[in-house]
Structures are given as structure tokens and as C-alpha cells.
Amino acid sequence: MTRDELAARLQSACARVIAAEQELTEIDSRFGDADHGLTMTKIAKAISSAAEGAEGGIQSLLDDAAMAVMTLNGGSAVPLWNTWLDGLQEEAPAGDEIDTAGLKAIFARALEELDGMSGAAVGDKTMMDALIPASQAIAAYGGSDPAELFTVAAKAAAEGAENSKNFVSKFGRAKSYGEKTLGTPDAGAMSMSYFFQGLAQTGTQL
Fold first, then answer.
1. What pLDDT, on the 0 to 100 scale, is given for residue 205?
2. What is the pLDDT of residues 180-199, one digit of tens each?
3. 104/135 Cα distance (integer angstroms)
4. Which of these, 116, 52, 124, lies nearest to 87 by C-alpha position?
């Protein structure tokens, strides 16, 4: 996969998140601060703008995206996404191409970095309910097609986000609602799922 192809997928991912702003806000309004849609739109626009204007290779592209998010003011999603993006760039190649093994390496490192900060696991009703299954699917992928890798990851993320309906919130404001949160997906898991869905789209679908 070339740098430009990855940049196009990042922009597609951001467009998918932005399109879901109202849905994410509605979900978050049930047990949260009703600001997740707005926050994620800010994050997505920052990433997309960085992807469009970045110079240099793949590592530079991802570093610019992480830095763009780091400068934002927003909710708890901002430092979480900055940490994840920063983890992606730490293992990224400096050049203009990345193969499937390279993609697996950057997503493994990104999960490791965020896991150290978040402390959340599958079942805690957070963004990790989508990110961990997606990352595990990437790690388990045995093929050599980057497009197929992203498709597999998107499917796992979507299933993880949907499954978050079955959990009780254990973090943030929603934690105080206890079992009332059953039946509602986590907004952070949904936005991460949409991001992976966008990554799985080809450049022709932008």
C-alpha cells in the first residue's frame, strides 16, 4: 500500500465518522455529555486535514495526524485518539510504502500504547470494545492483501461495537447509570467502528 493510498483511506475513515455525528451525539446523550459526536467530528476533521496536507512518507503522515489531534480541545476522546495515532506512527516506515506485515506492526503498537493509557478491556463499554477486536483481527490475518486486512478489521470492529450493547458501562459519566446502560451501544466503540469502516473503503468510494 502506498502512502497516498493510506492517506485516502484515512480521509475516507474520517468522512465516515463525520457523517455519523448526529447518531454519535444521540447515543452519547443517553448516559453521557452529548458531546461525543462533536468531539469526534473535530478529531476526524483534524486527521483528514493532516492527511490531505502532510508531506513526507507514511510515518510523517501519521505523525502529522497525531499532532493535529493533540492540539484539539475536547473530551476524553482527544487524548485517547492522540495516543492511538501516535502509536501508529511509532512503528510506521519512513518511506512511501507499507506492506501487510507493516500494517500489522503499526496497529499492534498502537493498541499497545492505548492499552497502557486506557486500562479498559472488552466488556467495559468503551472504544476498546471495537478497537481490541479490530486489532486482534488484524494480528490474526494471514493473507497479504491490505484491502482485505482492513475489511476483516472493519467487520470485527462493527461486531465489537454492536456487542457493547450487552455490557454495563464501567468508565466515565455513564458508569453511574449502571444496568440502565444495557441495550445501548457505547458511543466511543461506535465511532471507532465507523473509522474502521471508512478505512475499509477504497479510494474510489471517497
1. 41
2. 778 899 999 999 999 999 99
3. 8
4. 116
